[in-house]
Specification:
Length: 325
């Protein structure tokens, strides 16, 4: 029995040492890799965007196990999901918490990797699921140095930020962040999530920052699975993607400023003539002049469907809604 116990310990101890050994540089790169052959069903909201891809660095919360062990779950996958729907050229850094101590995945090696990535400029910096103030001072400084110089910042999380203050807030909230988006049901709250209630924009000298104020798993709130939730996730990612484009200064000259007006549209399933109104903000950009003939050709409208509300400022289009099964 004693010999058996000794043999068992000899087998278990090496395995335990391997489990808790420091992460190697090769493992660090593998753990942070966004490469995947898995493509989930998704709506490509802004693939092939006219402004080109956004080069972005994501700092993603990696759980509560400290530097040498992570439990990110599907948090890193959210960066992949966003990149499937928008032209995002992404790199990622894991940042975790154990008790009151915050650290990079891989400890010192992970921090050096983050600083090496920050040596190159990005169009957008994303803080996904934790307060930016938890990052080391040098990392915060390097991010903000780029943002005040013209880069974008996107923060997904509910904790207040000392950088995103009322003094720096842009009012009214830019349409790219708050307009033309549906209310999204939530499983934990009695009222749906409305973009105008959770999204805000800020000016940090020459750069922009967007704040999506909710309890973020990484980029979106964590909700229990439901078939309806698969559709809702598309709209959650639409809000994140629009916030990312706006923060990076890639919102485009023509934007959807409202769909069906400011109030929810209720349509009967048996209504064959249901129509909705879509409003585009153009700010006088001539790009919109190409929209109408394209719609006439694709939708086979008998006549141009767009109507000017204010000359060269906004257009309205009355569209017939598809029948619902």
């Amino acid at each position: 029995m004693r010999r058996l116990l000794v043999l068992t310990l000899l087998i278990l101890v090496p395995g335990s040492l391997a489990t808790w050994a420091a992460t190697t540089p090769e493992e660090l790169e593998e753990n942070h890799s966004l490469a995947t052959s898995i493509v989930t069903p998704h709506k490509p909201w802004a693939r092939g965007h006219v402004g080109g891809p956004v080069h972005a660095l994501f700092f993603v919360f990696a759980g509560h196990y400290g530097p040498d062990w992570g439990e990110p779950g599907t948090r890193l996958r959210e960066v992949v999901e966003l990149s499937q729907r928008f032209d995002i050229d992404a790199e990622a850094v894991f940042f975790s918490r154990r008790g009151d101590v915050w650290s990079f995945h891989g400890g010192k090696d992970g921090e050096e990797r983050a600083l090496a990535l920050l040596a190159e400029p990005y169009d957008l910096y994303v803080i996904a699921g934790f307060p930016m103030e938890r990052l080391p001072g040098e990392v915060q400084y390097r991010i903000l140095e780029q943002v005040v110089g013209g880069a974008g910042l996107l923060y997904c999380g509910q904790d207040a930020s000392e950088y995103l203050t009322d003094k720096r807030r842009i009012t009214p909230t830019p349409a790219m962040l708050a307009a033309g988006l549906p209310a999204i049901p939530t499983g934990s709250e009695s009222t749906p999530q409305v973009a105008a209630d959770v999204a805000s924009g800020y000016r940090l000298r020459d750069g922009r920052a967007a704040w999506l104020r909710y309890a973020a798993w990484a980029l979106t709130p964590s909700e229990p699975f439901s078939w309806r939730g698969l559709a809702d996730y598309e709209y959650r990612m639409l809000l994140v993607g629009r916030a990312a484009l706006w923060a990076a200064g890639r919102e485009g000259a023509v934007q959807v400023s409202s769909v069906c007006g400011d109030e929810p549209l209720h349509v009967r399933r048996d209504d064959p003539d249901a129509r909705a109104r879509v409003t585009l903000a153009t700010a006088g950009d001539p790009t919109v002049e190409a929209v109408d003939p394209i719609l006439v050709a694709i939708a086979r409208l008998p006549e141009p469907g767009w109507r000017l509300r204010t000359p060269r400022q906004a257009l309205e289009y009355r569209a017939q809604l598809p029948a619902m099964a």
